[in-house]
């Protein structure tokens, strides 16, 4: 079943989206934006833990990734290239503490500089080799990150991380405190700066972001709730040099927010797993044959839905209409007025059909998920009124609040290898050429690991963002 919890998580500032632009491997989504694709949600495992595991299966423990480098004003993005290599360089640990050092290297600029040195040289003298070797010391080629986690008892942990990119000024730092109660999770998160990504694949850096959230655990009744506060400090800056005004949710101010959701699921039919499925008999005896992924072990057809609401109160932030300067010197101005108090409703409905039990080597898994998302009922109502009143001034807002239709197709290729396509369509026939169209798509290839019950190594690529990376994901369908 497609992840319906995305509907509630998208209302807050701490929903991580997979991104190779940081060594942390993620950027946060923006509240008030359309829900992200399921394939875009970051892994539950920390990036440094993923690198530790993935390094066992890659030569020299080096994992590739692909993302345009966000350049400084004096550099061109094309010099550094998009291809990068990551590796876990160091990870000392004790029973309740560990420290990890991650390194990243972008080889394109180094190869181009060395090639330029030899092309310009008339004779291959020692000075030519010495000059070419100096390019290895170019700090813009390298990025380094440090991450540490300390467990304070069985229910509390602290996480601290910092990273510096050689081609950019400054560094990124983050602190997290996680505490687990009997039926709630408490999370304190502070980042300076915090990287966010909007539905247009534009990245924004908020100089200071602090959040405190309390979330209830999933219950049998389907009711969940969550509340918290968020503080944004400083003007948002464009992190990938794209024109446009920063989202209102990222402007300076203090926000208190509460949300609830009610989720229900109904199976139209389902083939339950049996002992005959788990044990196969051959001439050589009986063998245990579990599914490659326990989340994909039962053929079924199901319908699920989630409805919920949010209440938001903003304090301060009078400077929200001021201009912010991006990294390349461009000015981003936010002219939208942010309501000090607002409430809204959201909802999703999903239909899932799965054929196969994902046990055999071939033709044992085909799955399709179709999900309709409405991120803002009030925004959708306003867009409908604007359509009838032919108000074109708010056409951009109409597109943001329009419903989205998500399709997820999963097809077994061979054994534990599955090809997956996540696509999102904007539904707005009243906007002419800017109306209904495919808004986003992510292609991925995964290798399921039986020993982890529901773990897989996923390689994905996003044409819209021009990014791709390899991740370890756990207990995700």
From TrEMBL:
It comes from the Eukaryota. One of its GO terms (molecular function) is phosphatidic acid binding. GO terms for cellular component: chloroplast envelope. Transmembrane segments: none annotated. GO terms for biological process: acylglycerol transport; ER to chloroplast lipid transport. This is Protein TRIGALACTOSYLDIACYLGLYCEROL 4, chloroplastic. The lineage of its organism: Eukaryota, Viridiplantae, Streptophyta, Embryophyta, Tracheophyta.
